[in-house]
Amino acid sequence: MGKHEKKPSTKVERPKKEFSKKIAVIAIVMWVSVNIYGMVMMAITLDLSPLMYIVGSVDAVAAIVYTTYSIKAKAENMIKLKKIYGYDAESVVDAVLREREYYDD
């Protein structure tokens, strides 16, 4: 090999993580760390009043992130299913629900 020749790369390239996954991981880590910190501090101080603030703030943020991530994942899955099967998955669900209306009579 000459001086200026590049060595073959042995590094395995991983796909980039989506921004929404990074946000979800950050929210989960934040939720776990704040809850553990709150539990430790409540055990040390023998005061349960911080529990009200932890449940109200951190759990609400984690719930919002989880909900929005789930909605995004559902939309991505619908797109994948449409590419695979060639039809919209929501229209299939609507057709099934319409059929049920006929059977309910």
Structure described in brief:
The chain has 105 residues and is mostly helical.
Chart the SSEs and their pairings.
Elements: H1 19-45, H2 50-85, H3 89-104
Helix pairs in contact: 1-2
Write structural notes for this entry:
The chain is flat, with a radius of gyration of 24 Å. With 105 residues, it is mainly α. The model has no long low-confidence stretch (mean pLDDT 75). The chain has helices spanning 19-45, 50-85, 89-104. It has one domain (19-104). It is built from 3 helices and no strands. α1 packs antiparallel against α2 (50-85). The protein starts with 18 loop residues before the first helix and ends with a helix.
Keywords:
flat; mainly alpha; single chain; 75% helix; 105 residues
